[in-house]
Amino acid sequence: EAGVTQFPSHSVIEKGQTVTLRCDPISGHDNLYWYRRVMGKEIKFLLHFVKESKQDESGMPNNRFLAERTGGTYSTLKVQPAELEDSGVYFCASSQAYGGGETQYFGPGTRLLVL
Amino acid sequence: AQSVAQPEDQVNVAEGNPLTVKCTYSVSGNPYLFWYVQYPNRGLQFLLKYITGDNLVKGSYGFEAEFNKSQTSFHLKKPSALVSDSALYFCAVRDWGYGNNRLAFGKGNQVVVIP
């Protein structure tokens, strides 16, 4: 069974440009999450999809970030325009069910550097 | 709100010695606790979790963790460390009573196993 995949693995862009990150969850997983780790700090929650619906987007930093999950399969996270402080590693995770003890399985992350 | 503290930035241990990575948490409801490991240039891999029941949880690669409610701790342990255990370890908590499905992570501990 394939795990969570993310594309691209690395992205280097200039301030003001747009970047789109993609996440493909484990097949059959309705729940999809985005997290971010800024250099040396905690991994922070961004948002949670259940199928195509945003269940919780309380962690999104501002309106420069837009997440979509059309059709309830893969998800994209767009940053427009990118700022220096957006640099970090963006992780995607998925889980099969919605529940307290449910395990979230993470992808390899996308390393974003904004210059 | 839920939070996790991993007090040590780096843990150094000689190969063959016991390894302990410390984690304390804060939640308003019932905690669900997780450990993840990140090897160099890889994503987060799930190690083990505590939901309920036996306070000693066994996981992958010979790791175990002990849930201590009175001390609000969930320390990760391995009886005999291997050089290949050198990695970044993250503790995470989900406060199911808080009504969300997100994970709150600690800042991570770098484990260095010395040959």
Task: Describe it.
The complex is a heterodimer of chains A (115) and B (115). Chain A is mainly β. Chain A has no helices and 11 strands. In chain A, the strands form 2 sheets. In chain A, strands 2, 4, 5, 6, 9, 10 and 11 form a 7-stranded mixed beta sheet that branches. Chain A has a 4-stranded antiparallel beta sheet with strand order 1-3-8-7, with no helix packed on it. Chain A is globular, with a radius of gyration of 13 Å. Chain A starts with a strand and ends with a strand. The mean pLDDT of chain A is 93. Chain B has 115 residues and is mainly beta. Helix content of chain B is 0%, strand content 52%. Chain B has no helices and 12 strands. In chain B, the strands form 3 sheets. In chain B, strands 2, 5, 6, 10, 11 and 12 form a 6-stranded mixed beta sheet that branches. A 4-stranded antiparallel beta sheet of chain B has the order 3-9-8-7, with no helix packed on it. Chain B has a two-stranded antiparallel sheet with strand order 1-4. In chain B, 41% of the residues are buried. The interface between A and B is medium-sized, with 31 and 26 residues.
